[in-house]
Design goal:
five-stranded antiparallel β-sheet, 10 strands, single chain, globular, alpha+beta, about 230 residues
């Protein structure tokens, strides 16, 4: 589907998040392919080289990537009932959430401008940029809905990530962590406390912050793929 004025920024943000996750899998030594057309999965991740040269058991993981903007009020992910049902099934299906926060910008250094007081002019630009960054951090989501903020006005962003296996998506749907909204979509509230990710009221275990554990073994892997989310599941 072609993008329009309303969907344009969301498209670029989503593409950025998908390529970011794709590049991380390459960094970890896995192959990652973009799926086209859109069938509810963004990436297929395999270990063809690792199985060939290191003797690993072949794997194929299906990855859907969701990106959200976070400010002082947290972040919010939305999903349709059909997509939530799809991502809640399949033994090798995952949803990766990319959280954008800490938007920063930079000013034109004006290297060859020689006015009466170039430092003063630059100082004003820096103050305006700092104010824009503050607004993004405190009320960026609301301002974006109003059309008063665009991520394209910044050139740096901090990223946090977490992933959920299909069994965890299913459990969160059944326990109503995914909440049905009046518009018919399911919503998930996401907050950060330091390095910890909290979904709804659940503080996720650290393994879910590291997408390597989608493909690599970890001691918590067995329980994670049965729906465990936090230390309360120990």
């Amino acid at each position: 589907m072609p993008i329009n004025q309303e969907s344009c920024e969301s498209f670029y943000q989503g593409a950025f998040a998908e390529h970011h996750i794709c590049s991380l899998f390459f960094l970890y030594g896995y192959e990652a392919q973009k799926v086209s057309p859109d069938v509810g999965i963004d990436l297929i991740v395999t270990n063809i080289a690792r199985s060939r040269f290191k003797g690993e058991v072949p794997l194929r993981s299906e990855i859907q990537v969701k990106s959200v903007l976070l400010d002082a009020s947290g972040a919010f992910a939305s999903i349709s009932a059909e997509e939530l049902e799809f991502l809640s099934s399949g033994d090798h299906r995952y949803c990766v959430f990319v959280i954008l926060h800490g938007l920063r910008g930079s000013c034109d250094p004006q290297s060859f401008e020689r006015g009466d007081d170039p430092d003063a002019i630059n100082a004003v630009d820096r103050d305006l940029q700092a104010f824009a960054e503050q607004l993004a951090a405190t009320e960026g989501r609301a301002r974006r809905r109003q059309g008063a903020l665009s991520i394209h006005d910044f050139d740096h962003v901090e990223l946090s990530r977490f992933w959920l296996h299909s069994s965890q998506m299913k459990r969160m749907r059944e326990e109503r962590v995914w909440r049905l909204r009046p518009n018919g979509l399911f919503g998930l509230r996401i907050t950060l406390e330091g390095r910890s990710v909290i979904v709804g009221e659940i503080r996720l275990i650290p393994e879910l912050n590291d997408i390597r554990y989608i493909t690599a073994n970890c001691s918590a892997g067995g329980k994670v793929r049965k729906g465990a989310l936090s230390m309360d599941d120990y």
